[in-house]
Structures are given as C-alpha cells and as structure tokens.
C-alpha cells in the first residue's frame, strides 16, 4: 500500500488527463540510478511473466527498488491502484552515433478502453538533447491509432524531447505517441520502460482533497498547439475521462457536455 | 543527361483553410540520395525540426510548391462524432527537382 502522503493530487491528475503524462525530475537517487545502469549494462534485468503482480517481481534487482520508492508507489497507486500487474518492460537503447530517429508510434495496438495502463519511462543517466531522448507528443493519448499508423508524421508543433538529468521519470497514458531520437554522443543511451495494468476500477485513487480547486478546470482546458480545430473535441474527451476517474457523471467543464446533453422532453 | 525527381512536403493545418497555420509537417525527398536511414526500414526523420518550414500551405505555394492532394471531408460516421485519430487537414505538396541522371 502506498504512503498516502505520496499520492498524486487532483491538479496532477487533471494534468495527466489533459496532456497524457506527468514528469518527475531527478526523483530517483543517484546511487540507485548507477545500480540500475549497471544492471542494464550487464543485461541483468530479469524479464517477468506478463500479468504477474508488480509486488512479486524483481525482489532483488535495483530496478525493483526504483519502483518500490515511496514516491513512485504513490504515483502507481494514484493511476492504476494498489496492486497493479506487470505487463512488460524494455531496456531501450540508442547506440552511440546513431543519427536516425525512430518513427512515431504508440505502443501495443488500438485500444478503446476508458480503463488505462501506464508506462514509466525512466532515464537512469543524464540525457541531453544530443543524446535524444524519447520524443513525446503531449495530448496524443485519446487518438485512436494502431502502433505505427502515424509513421508518416515527422514533426509536430508542441512535441517534447525528454531532456533531463539522471533519475528523471515520466509516466504516460498507454496511448501516448512517442519515438526515440538520434544519439549524437559517444555513449550508449538507455531508457527503461515499464508497463503496468490496473486490477481495480480506476476511481478516485489519488488524494482528492483538492478536487474542487478551480485550477483543475483550468488545467483540463489547456490546449495543445497541434490540436488546431479539434481542441474542443479533445476537451470533450477529457471531460468524459474525468467523469470516469471521479465517478461524477454530471461533471462538466465550460458547459461543453451540458449543452449537447440537453434534450428536454417537457411539453 | 538531367532528369527530374519529386520532393514531397506534407503540411497539416489547424483548419481546412489553406491559409491556416501549420501544426505538423513531413518532408520526403526523392531527389536526395538513398542512405541507411531510408533503406533500413526502421528509422525516420522524426523530431528533427522545431519550427514548420512554412506558415501555411499558401506560403509554401508562394515558394514554388504545388498542391497535389487535398484532404477529403466527410461527416463523422454515426457514433464516432467525438473520437479523435489522425490529423484531419493533411495537404500534400510537390516540387520537381532536376538531378544529374
């Protein structure tokens, strides 16, 4: 069970709903980063069976200690509950001097659920822009596409390269569009990815003390520069997702759903 | 003997108006020599630029690009009115470039 002091708050959850990811800079201590990097160098991170309880895997590995940090347990609990399942992990590498990007994609396949998986992207060493890192597209998580359907696209206004210090993680909704970036340095680049599945209904799993903070509405209304004319449709998707997460079927933001759900029958 | 090769520029706009701002873009250059990136099948030109090459399709036309495909516009299929997927306003433009054959 996660320490309640480390749960996400409602403003962070609203940010996840609006942008599809949250970023935590230098969260993992340096000694642990170095231990994980050594495990990756030695290809010593065991692959576990899909569907295993997260609590049962990597009992001795440094990477297991990362995902048992109280701060990270709080993030996990807030998004996928107290006892999530391990889906898979990947030690992604980009070789030194690899000057080519990867095509844009989303992981797995087209996924129509409201229920959602999360993926951690963990950077165990400093990742300057010339090293990559992973490029993500905020606000892409509601887009219904299957893996590399989006490979024709090259650049978006608002794309974000993960340039960060060692120990930084992002946690993304499973639908997030992303791609690896070139590594123009002389060092191998790592990104450790872990996908988790919920085992409980994802309903108010975070610290909801600030659920009525006006900033929540403001965050849910944040536009992405690449959405263009679809900004309002994106808002509708966010409102539906917030209803799912809070259990409040009447929730609305800026009257978008109240208007189109108004079908009076009074004669 | 010189020959011509096709270069493609794909611009994605905020709205279907050809003056609308560019929100995403791709370039495919048939005049450039083949390299490992484009023959390996697993590498792309993703993320190489931060600013679009033109402000709009009309701006690109002023620089000699010819529009060769408009996005078709269809009403949403019933039940999909609030779903989002691909970028809707995709314009494909070309230039023909002379190369040494």
Helix and strand topology:
The complex is a heterodimer of chains A (267) and B (101).
Chain A: H1 10-19, E1 21-24, H2 30-41, E2 52-53, H3 62-66, H4 70-80, E3 85-94, E4 118-123, E5 134-136, E6 155-156, E7 160-161, E8 168-173, E9 178-180, E10 189-197, H5 214-220, H6 231-246, H7 256-260
Helix pairs in contact in A: 1-5
Chain B: E1 2-13, E2 22-29, H1 36-40, H2 57-62, E3 66-69, E4 90-100
Antiparallel strand pairs in B: 1-2, 1-4, 3-4
Features:
heterodimer; A: about 270 residues; alpha+beta; Jelly Rolls; 2 domains; six-stranded antiparallel beta sheet; three-stranded antiparallel beta sheet; about 25% helix; globular; B: about 100 residues; mainly beta; four-stranded antiparallel beta sheet
Overall description:
The complex is a heterodimer of chains A (267) and B (101). Chain A is built from seven helices and ten strands. Chain A is α+β, with helices and mostly antiparallel strands and 267 residues long. Chain A has two domains: 4-197, Jelly Rolls; 209-260, no CATH class. Chain A has a six-stranded antiparallel beta sheet with strand order 1-8-4-10-3-2. A three-stranded antiparallel beta sheet of chain A has the order 7-5-9, with no helix packed on it. The longest helix of chain A has 16 residues, at 231-246. In chain B, strand 1 and strand 2 form a beta hairpin. Chain B is globular. The model of chain B has no long low-confidence stretch (mean pLDDT 91). Strand 6 (155-156) of chain A pairs antiparallel with strand 2 of chain B.
């Amino acid at each position: 069970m996660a320490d309640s002091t480390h749960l996400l708050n409602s403003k962070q959850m609203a940010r996840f709903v609006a942008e599809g990811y949250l970023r935590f800079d230098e969260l993992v201590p340096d000694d642990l980063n170095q231990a994980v990097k050594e495990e990756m160098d030695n290809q010593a991170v065991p692959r576990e069976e899909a569907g295993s309880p997260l609590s049962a895997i990597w009992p001795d590995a440094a990477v297991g200690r990362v995902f048992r940090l109280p701060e990270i347990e709080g993030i996990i609990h807030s998004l996928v509950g107290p006892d999530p399942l391990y889906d898979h992990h990947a030690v992604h590498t980009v070789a030194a001097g690899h000057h080519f990007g990867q095509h844009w994609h989303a992981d797995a396949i087209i996924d129509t659920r409201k229920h959602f998986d999360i993926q951690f992207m963990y950077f165990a060493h400093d990742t300057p822009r010339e090293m990559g890192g992973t490029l993500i597209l905020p606000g892409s998580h509601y887009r219904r596409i299957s893996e590399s359907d989006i490979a024709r696209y090259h650049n978006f206004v608002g794309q974000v390269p993960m340039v960060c210090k060692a120990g930084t993680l992002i946690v993304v909704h499973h639908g997030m569009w992303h791609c690896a970036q070139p590594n123009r340095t002389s060092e191998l680049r790592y990104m450790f990815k872990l996908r988790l599945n919920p085992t409980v209904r994802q309903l108010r799993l975070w610290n909801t003390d600030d659920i009525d903070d006006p900033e929540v509405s403001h965050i849910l209304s944040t536009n992405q520069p690449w959405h263009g004319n679809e900004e309002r449709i994106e808002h509708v998707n966010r409102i539906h997702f917030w209803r799912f997460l809070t259990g409040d079927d009447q929730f609305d933001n800026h009257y978008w759903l109240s208007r189109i759900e108004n079908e009076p029958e009074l004669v | 003997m010189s020959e011509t090769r096709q270069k493609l520029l794909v611009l994605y706009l905020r709205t279907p108006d050809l003056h609308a701002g560019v929100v995403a873009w791709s370039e495919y250059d048939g005049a450039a020599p083949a390299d490992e990136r484009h023959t390996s099948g697993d590498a792309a030109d993703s993320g190489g630029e931060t600013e679009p090459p033109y402000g709009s399709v009309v701006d690109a036309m002023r620089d000699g690009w010819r529009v060769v495909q408009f996005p078709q516009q269809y009403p949403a299929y019933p039940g999909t009115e609030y779903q989002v997927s691909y970028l809707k306003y995709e314009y494909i433009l070309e230039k023909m470039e002379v190369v040494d054959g």
